[in-house]
Amino acid sequence: MVDFSFCHIDEILMHRKSLRRQLLTAEELKDLRVAVLGGATTTELVNFLDLLLLQGGFRPVFYQSEYGRYYEDAVQDPQALIDFAPDLVYIHTSCRDVRHSPPIDCTEAQFNESVESELERFLEIWNSLDRNLGCQVIQSNFETPPYAILGNMDSVAYGGLSRFLMQVNVAFAQEACKRPKLILQDAHGISARLGTRNWFDWRRYWNYKLLLTPEANLEVARSLYSMVRAMYGKSRKVLVLDLDNTLWGGVIGDDGIEKIQIGRETPVAEAYTAFQEYCLSLRNRGILLAVCSKNTEEIAKSGFEHPSSILKLEDISCFKANWNPKHENLQEIARELNLGVDSFVFVDDNPAERVIVQAQLPQVAVPDVGSDVSRFAEILEQGRFFEPIALSKEDLVRAALYADNSRRAALQRKFANYGEYLDSLEMVAEIDSFKPLYLDRIAQLTNKTNQFNLTTQRYTLAEMEAIAGDEHHIALYGRLTDRFGDNGLISIVVGRIERATLHIDLWLMSCRVLKRDMEFAMLDAIVERSLDAGLERLMGYYFPTAKNGMVADFYAKLGFEPSVADDRALPEGATVWNLHLADYKPKNQHIHVMEHANA
Amino acid sequence: MPDLTADGVLAELQPIFQEALDNPGLTVTRGSSGLNTPGWDSIAHIEIIEMVERHFKVRFDLGEVQDLKTVGDLVDLTRRTAQH
Hints:
The complex is a heterodimer of chains A (599) and B (84).
Chain A: H1 9-23, E1 30-38, H2 43-55, E2 58-64, H3 70-76, H4 79-84, E3 88-92, H5 108-132, E4 136-140, H6 161-178, E5 182-185, H7 187-194, H8 202-208, H9 214-231, E6 238-241, H10 252-255, H11 267-284, E7 288-294, H12 297-302, E8 316-322, H13 326-337, E9 344-347, H14 351-360, H15 373-383, H16 393-412, H17 418-424, E10 427-433, H18 439-448, H19 461-468, E11 473-482, E12 485-498, E13 501-509, H20 518-532, E14 537-542, H21 554-557, E15 561-563, E16 575-580, E17 591-593
Parallel strand pairs in A: 1-2, 1-3, 3-4, 4-5, 6-7, 6-9, 7-8, 10-17, 13-14
Antiparallel strand pairs in A: 10-11, 11-12, 12-13, 14-16, 15-16
Helix pairs in contact in A: 1-2, 2-9, 3-5, 5-6, 7-9, 11-15
Chain B: H1 6-20, H2 42-56, H3 62-67, H4 71-82
Helix pairs in contact in B: 1-2, 1-4
């Protein structure tokens, strides 16, 4: 399949309809309803986004406002939007859509008022969308204006449009921090990287009210696509790195540690150092680093002891240096990290290695980074593989969590039996009904968990909010702490009450806490709440996917009996399980569960 | 180097129109326009102009685009622009 993230724009423009027809034949596309409200004509942007989403496994349906009607559609007459029932609203406005730009001779007070008035118009839009739709909203901020009427003063004087737009952008950012359903798209940054001369297309604007060049629309669409991927938990999580001529210059097995190029001594060494710094900054925001290198392990590891090496061995969550084919090592890394290879990005200067990995494991992202280290980071950035939509506390400590996991693994080897090991972990769980504080994390975990996930049903934040407040649902989260640290919120169960039965629509758990008996503690809690609600049985469902084979016999292990669906249509291969609550005995023995506050 | 005779340009426009109007069996003539060609609406028009410019590596002026109505206009404009 064509990889559009690096495809030349002419390829896409010249063959869009054929590509689209071809992509539509894919199976298992996820429906996605996107409303695009634009200050200018949005058809080209939507065409690009359509292709990108199709390629990414979505089947998008679009609603587009008439050009310039974004405010009216959102605030004055939202019925068409309500009827469309979008999963996502995207508002693209530009510096042409500003209504309150201050006069050139304005005072500070007038300037502040203008910013307030401009913001107020958008607050009305966001509030109305919140009230009427409750779905995620992506709003673009403002690019630098095409002309600086005041020259360099344009970004200094209160009457400068550049200064004004900067201030409005700051106000937008402050709002986005406060509103969980508002995500800001940094059009300012996107346009700066492309250059505003390649951004505005005045000829098409006067002819068709199409403001941006095709190049700009493609960049905006790519950015949007990466945000949608992030919303649905499809952002990549692991950066897998080759070593020789990728993390340092030279071949360590031939040249020796003293000859590899890293540090500040030569331009090439400085470039490798800068790339290592880039990798480290990814790690510090929660992206795992792994090594996959054809080398003798000990020699390979010695490279990280180089005094100038920015990356240290403990920054690498999984290290594979041997002479096996790289695609086999990547699968090993996936097993050890408990993650799918579809969360991997692979960086190798050697084109032959890239080709074989891409052919053997098409789910791995293999950007063509070339062989010039000074371009690696820039090319990785263009792929937008690691887009986050929110930085949770968990993201910032994730690498540490995985390090804790390897310490736990070391401990495990010393115990007589597994129960003794579990007890030694001194696990404490908090299991409770959904709380507003955790809803972001609950939605995030729901949309990114693929392996330990019985039904792989996805829910938006808004849907989870609705469930949290609904008396016909029993929806629980579980957090787990142990002597090595806090694993965070790692399990979610959503049950739907129908007469005397609780239908378990969703049961998932982070693989970080596999084999810790957390599922027993969760089941005990579900049963307790179901009995309190006067229910008589649980119905569990397993919907097989390419990734959740590990839980195919989950309900059998928990003591459920095979059953059949009442009368609902289920996906192919689905199994149904039944548990009578009358003589249920609690199963959890090794986790101390805290008393819940809002039972 | 594309063939810049009137017939040559018209021939090279065929696959562009087929793709833009999503109709592999389509053949346009000099007289084809938005009025007599199914699917050739204002949105398709934008795509056609973009594709023609990229294929022939030309850039039309604002006013020239505004006056384009038929395939014949497009052939003539492409030839004029490409020869300069």
